[in-house]
Design goal:
The chain is of the alpha+beta class. It has 3 helices and 8 strands.
Length: about 190
């Protein structure tokens, strides 16, 4: 069943489905969604919004939880939705503490502060992946950070950044340093 549908008129039911999807080349071992609050009195924001989640198995006991959403235009309900999403992700994290979490989507606002809705410190907090990449990028030839991450345009000039990817590491991997594929293979093969 679609996430968004409504009735118009007394006898005719119209159904409108808004789709979110998660695609992965790795196995999706779990999936679910949570319904987000909505404002039925505002016709622009009355359709049902969701946060879709999937647990993706990357390797043996290494998994990542991926979530996607598309939030409404109205600020008050959007703030409520962000709080609901953070609470949902905290709940999922408590169930699967070994998983990384990735939240991405169209937030329909420029300044998104997920951590203002819960207490966190260090690697327990959400990190804006684009800002993290640009802050750590030492390649002077890279132009990826030159557009300030803007993703929204009304006139072919990207002027706003309303689409985000946030990452939160697993509790067990707070101090994890990534290794090469060769190192991982050597560990698995006993070298």
């Amino acid at each position: 069943q679609g996430a968004a549908y409504w009735s118009e008129g007394e006898d005719v039911e119209f159904r409108s489905e808004e789709g979110l999807a998660i695609f992965s080349r790795f196995p999706i071992t779990e999936h679910e969604y949570v319904l987000l609050s909505r404002n039925m009195s505002d016709s622009w924001n009355s359709h049902q919004r969701i946060c879709l989640g999937a647990k993706i198995q990357l390797h043996h006991n290494i998994s990542v939880q991926v979530f996607v959403t598309h939030l409404p235009l109205e600020q008050s309900i959007r703030t409520t939705n962000i709080r609901e999403i953070v609470e949902y992700l905290d709940e999922k994290r408590n169930q699967h503490s070994s998983s990384w979490q990735v939240l991405c989507g169209d937030f329909n606002q420029e300044d998104v502060q997920l951590d203002s809705f819960h207490s966190c410190s260090g690697c327990q907090c959400f990190t804006d992946a684009w800002l993290q990449y640009c802050n750590n990028n030492t390649n002077p030839a890279s132009t990826a950070c030159g557009n300030h991450g803007n993703t929204f345009s009304t006139n072919l000039h990207y002027q706003k950044r309303i689409d985000f990817v946030f990452v939160r590491t697993s509790r067990e991997l707070c101090n994890f340093k990534p290794h090469s594929k060769r190192w991982i293979n050597e560990q698995e093969n006993g070298f």
